[in-house]
Amino acid sequence: MTTYRISQLAERAGVRPTTLRFYEQAGLLPAQRSESGYRLYGDDAIERLGFITSGKRLGLPLEEIRDLLQVWEDGLCTDVRHRLRPMLATRIAEAEQRATELDAFTERLRQALTEIDGPPRPGRCDPGCGFLHHQHDPQPTPIKLSPPRPTTDNTGDNGTTPAPIACTLNGSDQAERAQQWHELLDHAQRRDPIDGGLRFHLPAHTAGEVAALAAAEQQCCAFFTFTLHLSAGELQFDVHAPDDAAPLLADLFGTPN
């Protein structure tokens, strides 16, 4: 049987070695140890990683993937399908809910666009402009791209409803996301404090990866805001969070140099 060290398996599977170590800690990918203490994997690890990747592409949390792996190891294909079915039904319901919310939000944007394409009113913009809500109108429901979580009422003084200080990722996925940020931001040449957040100075070639991870973060933690500015071969990446989210900001993005 072929054996692989962690760097060899990572290269073959197209993942980072730190991801393999995280999967081991999460109980997804066991590893043997050589006499020198190196992690060793067999050919079955490649198939196991394919199974994990398939589960993540379906949006399954790591806890559910771990449950499925146990069934996959000990049972038949029929058993795996039986266990997977309710998981997929839940994901479909969540996706349909998000699609409904997105459709409603898209219609709201179209209505606003129709209003501003009409003849402008003289003077300042007021509720008569159409796209502004009258004070007696109900506040529109903010768009949520993930299942709602219970939160306290933190409506601001201006009547708007800020994004709730809550993350829709479960514990294992939060740990994985934090690890992804730490790996990426290790490339930072400098990190400075700014009002309400942090500023990272990164090599320009990281811009695509930073943007993709920031977009993913917005899907589950909408209270974070990100700004990317690329110039002179450097990426300036700003992260802002409300005061109440300062501990989460530090956990994910660290502290200034």
Quick rundown:
With 257 residues, the chain is of the alpha+beta class. It folds into three domains: 3-74, Multidrug-efflux Transporter Regulator, Chain: A, Domain 2 (Orthogonal Bundle); 81-129; 171-253, 2-Layer Sandwich (Alpha-Beta Plaits). The chain has eight helices and seven strands.
Q: Note the main sheet.
A: 4 strands, antiparallel
* Overall structural domain count: 3
Straight-line N-to-C gap: 47 Å
Structural class, by secondary structure, is alpha+beta
As residue ranges, the low-confidence spans are 134-161
Helix content: 40-55%
Overall pLDDT confidence: 79
| Rg for CA atoms | 23 Å
The CATH architecture of the largest domain would be 2-Layer Sandwich
CATH-defined fold name of the largest domain: Alpha-Beta Plaits
Strand order of the largest sheet: 4-5-7-6
Please give the CATH class of the largest domain: Alpha Beta
Beta-strand residue fraction:
5-15%
Compute the number of strand runs.
7
State the shape: globular
Order of helices and strands: EHHEEHHHHEEHEEH
Q: Work out the helix count.
A: 8
Write the layout of secondary structure elements.
Blueprint (H helix, E strand, L loop, with lengths): L2 E3 H8 L3 H9 L6 E2 L5 E4 L1 H14 L4 H13 L2 H41 L53 H15 L4 E5 L2 E7 L3 H14 L4 E7 L2 E7 L5 H8 L4
Antiparallel strand pairs: 1-3, 2-3, 4-5, 5-7, 6-7
Helix pairs in contact: 1-2, 3-4, 4-5, 6-7
